[in-house]
Amino acid sequence: MSEPQRTSTLNNPTSDLTGKSAVVTGASRGIGLAIATELARRGASVVITARKPEPLSAAADEIRAAVDGATVVVSPGNAGDESHRAEAVAAAVELGGIDILVNNTGINPIMGPLMDADLSAVRKIFDVNVAGTLGFIQEAYRAGMREHGGSIVNISSVAGLRSTGAIAAYGASKAALIRMTEELAWELGPRIRVNAIAPSVVRTKFASGLIAGDNEAQIAAGYPMGRIGEPDDVARAVAFLAGEESSWITGETIRVDGGMMATGGA
């Protein structure tokens, strides 16, 4: 029997982000929407991005409904588009500066092993998941983080930490993202901190094919915490890394996986 969907119960968050401006990519639903909502709940002004304008506007309305007085700006566009990245970061600057960047956009159009992978699809995965992320970081750096610092959080995956065979190209791209996070932490410190989150299966549309029907109970049984993840689980970890409580943490990848990898499971 599956557990009910959980929502944030953190009414008095300790990480105060009042006065900060954040960009959250891929925020029209799921993990990205939960992250943007949590940052807004903690006082940050948020710029949210996604490809399609209508779902993005609906997400902004959802954040405003959840957080009284929230400042939310929408910036629709493709993460692979340089002009879109510039516009999204510029919108944060107009809110007072770019202090927080959360790179959540990711795609996985193909399944299966690398030997069967279509190379054009592999290139697209790496272009969005790795190169697009680096493009957003470069834009935020040039737009103000270089001078006043900030916090960058990249959303990776446990598939980037251990081979699965099922989503091999996606996992390879997320492994590259983890390695890039470490490289940038070294390159951009001490003013800018760069960390990553590696979730396991989280209840989102992106993961719907994995947790359909009775499959959820089977997956949950393999987790020490006895359930699959919820978007808020990831959002609260991101908010911690965005705030001052994590001021001596950089180059780190935090597993948000319900203990799955501790069991030796893939």
Number of domains: 1
- What is the correct CATH architecture? 3-Layer(aba) Sandwich
At CATH level 3, the topology is Rossmann fold
Largest sheet: 7 strands, parallel
Radius of gyration: 17 Å
Q: Please provide the ordered H/E string of secondary-structure elements.
A: EHEHEHEHEHEHHE
Q: Count of DSSP E strands?
A: 7
pLDDT average, as an integer? 92
Computed structural class: alpha/beta
Which strand order spans the largest sheet, edge to edge or round the barrel? 3-2-1-4-5-6-7
* Helix run count: 7
Intertermini distance = 23 Å
In CATH terms, the superfamily is: NAD(P)-binding Rossmann-like Domain
Could you provide a short overview of the structure?
This protein has about 270 residues and is α/β, with parallel strands linked by helices.
Question: What would you say this structure looks like, in words?
Answer:
- This protein is of the alpha/beta class and 266 residues long.
- It has one domain: Rossmann fold (3-Layer(aba) Sandwich).
- 41% of the residues lie in helices and 14% in strands.
- It has 7 helices and 7 strands.
- Strands 3-2-1-4-5-6-7 form a 7-stranded parallel sheet, sandwiched between helices.
- Strand 1, helix 1 and strand 2 form a beta-alpha-beta unit.
- Helix 3 packs parallel to helix 4 and helix 4 packs parallel to helix 5.
- The longest helix is centred in the middle third of the chain and has 30 residues.
- The radius of gyration is 17 Å and the shape is globular.
- Belongs to the short-chain dehydrogenases/reductases (SDR) family.
- One of its GO terms (molecular function) is glucose 1-dehydrogenase [NAD(P)+] activity.
- Pfam families: adh_short_C2.
